[in-house]
Target: Biotin-dependent carboxyltransferase family protein
Amino acid sequence: MSDRALAVVRAGALTTVQDQGRPGHAHLGVPRSGALDAPAAALVNRLVGNAPEAAVLETTLNGCSVRPRATVTVAVGGAPCAVTVDGRPAAWGAPVRVPGGALLDVGAARAGVRSYLAVSGGVTVEPVLGSRSTDLLSGLGPAPLTDGIVLPLGRPAGPHACVDAVPHPAPPTELVLRVALGPRHDWFTDAALTALTARPYVVSSASNRIGLRTEGPTLERARPGELPSEGMVLGAVQVPPDGRPVVFLADHPTTGGYPVIAVVDPADLPAAAQAAPGTPVRFAAVRHRR
Model:
């Protein structure tokens, strides 16, 4: 195997390969997938000189450890965490040179949920439908990382960024999600519509890449029965029978039969990717622009 490779020593709770995803295949039942915190993934790619579409590693809560077979430049961003190379502290949020054979450890998130590791040249697992992203719902793309697997790397596309550090948004202490009501808000009582935007929720520990689940007031329906399955979009706020809103994230199903009470502004979804269980959630209604 080429020396342009990365051996996984510690896979962590859930580490996946992610890029910009595979949008445009909903008619085939294929979710878009891709990095949940897309700005963080794009930033670490820029730091190491990769193209925006290069694949990175997305960790969940407790990081991962990898050993490159050749000298590489890496950058870690997203959720703040400790970074070490052979046990010595290294920079977070900046380019770091890692010699071949050295152990790079991405530590547990100090705040937030997901950290992103970019490696010069990008992770070059075989693409599926134009993307290297792991899709947990459909099973497309590479499986989540396990200890001992080896990931191929591409050739560096350009020099790394000449910076000491760059600004990153902090993980939210309160998650504010701007929503436009609809398309099925008429399936809910006036009291439920008021509760959605006036009462507090918190992020549930059952959240994942498919959806951010919430705990809080139940939303009462004005209509009985169920809808026929219809198309679902990124950021849709679906209300299952338990009455608690679920915000659809990158691996969401492309169709669903539970009513969608609102849709989240896409600009607010990266923060949702970093909202740890227990984080307060507030839905803020906005008007459609004309």
User: Anything to note?
Assistant: Residues 38-48 form the longest helix (11 residues). The mean pLDDT is 95. The longest strand covers residues 72-78.
